[in-house]
Amino acid sequence: MLELAEFIGTLAFALSGYFVGVKERLDFLGIFITSFLTALGGGVIRDVIVERKPISFVDPTFPTIVLGVILIATLFKLHKNSSLENKSYFIISDTLGLVSFAISGTLVALQAHFSIFGVFLTALITAVGGGVLRDMLINRVPLLLKSDFYGSVAIVVAILIYILDRFSMTNIFWITLIFIFGVALRLVAYYKDWHLPKLT
Questions:
Q1: pLDDT for position 78
Q2: Structural domains in the chain (count)
């Protein structure tokens, strides 16, 4: 389950990072960096927190996925369109990455026997860490701080998996259902423009 979540998250966030690089009109190296940061940054931070070697540093599969996404996207000339970030396929790819990495972050934290707070925080960092690093690098406000139902989705996913773990039900069936629910929640929240209550 962990490897599958990492694979889907890397693939989706690599494409998301590519779209952001195109939107910002970066050169090829800039797009390369935004894709790698988005796809791998959160996982690196997570692995440092749990005191293990970052998986993207020891397993060439994940950097290769990012490189493959960049090359395929370039071959299909996605860089010719500078308005990709507002398109449905950007929203979907970013959502898939968010939920997948929230799942992988939660599973890693549970394996490390973190407290409930540690589990939620690790899930959030894994899901949004790469995007935050990317946005800081290109000098724009991270989506985490602009969208109430972005980081919140990662926390909801972490809560559900944490509950499953308490009942020893963290199997592929339930994780898949949570994945579907998380994706649906994020997409509905985005298109319905849902927001958390604000202090007044």
A1: 72
A2: 1
